[in-house]
C-alpha cells in the first residue's frame, strides 16, 4: 500500500484547508483498517488530527472536533482532511497513514505503520 498527500502549500489565515490522501495498492474500504491524518510541527511535535474507518466512521481529538472533518471518495480511493478557521499555529507537515492492525485505537499513532511522505502546509498572509 502506498499513500500520497496533496493539497495547497500556502493558505491564508481564517481559510479552510483541504488535503487529500490518495491510496494505491489497497482499498480504503478494506475491512477493518483505519486511515488517519497527523501533523508535525516544531511547537507540538507529532499530533493526531483524526481518522476514518473502512466503513466511513470518523474519530477526532477533542481539541480539533469543532474544526476538523474527514470525507472519502471510494471511487477514487481517496480520503480528505478539512480543517477550518486556520491560524499560523496550523503550519506543519501533514501526513496520512494506514493502520497496521484491524480496528486499532484510532488516536494511537503507533498503530499506523504505512505513511505518506508528508506535505508542508504554511498558514500565512
Description:
The protein contains no helices and eleven strands. The chain has 125 residues and is mostly beta strands. Strands 2, 4, 5, 6, 9, 10 and 11 form a seven-stranded mixed sheet that branches. A four-stranded antiparallel sheet has the order 1-3-8-7, with no helix packed on it. The radius of gyration is 13 Å and the shape is globular. The N and C termini lie far apart (36 Å).
Keywords:
four-stranded antiparallel beta sheet, mainly beta, 11 strands, 50% strand, globular, 125 residues, seven-stranded mixed beta sheet
Mean pLDDT: 96
**Care to count the β-strands?**
11
Segments where pLDDT lies below 50 for 5+ residues? none
Major β-sheet, in short? Answer: 7 strands, mixed
Which descriptor suits the 3D outline? globular
Tell me the series of helices and strands, N- to C-terminal: EEEEEEEEEEE
Structural class: mainly beta
Work out the radius of gyration.
Answer: 13 Å
Helix content: under 10%
Q: Could you tell me the strand content as a percent range?
A: over 45%
Distance between the termini: 36 Å
Question: Helical element count?
Answer: 0
What does this entry show, briefly?
By secondary structure, the chain is an all-beta fold. The protein is 0% helix and 50% strand.
Write the layout of secondary structure elements.
Elements: E1 2-6, E2 10-11, E3 17-24, E4 34-41, E5 45-53, E6 58-59, E7 68-73, E8 78-83, E9 92-99, E10 112-115, E11 119-123
Parallel strand pairs: 2-11
Antiparallel strand pairs: 1-3, 3-8, 4-5, 4-9, 5-6, 7-8, 9-10, 9-11
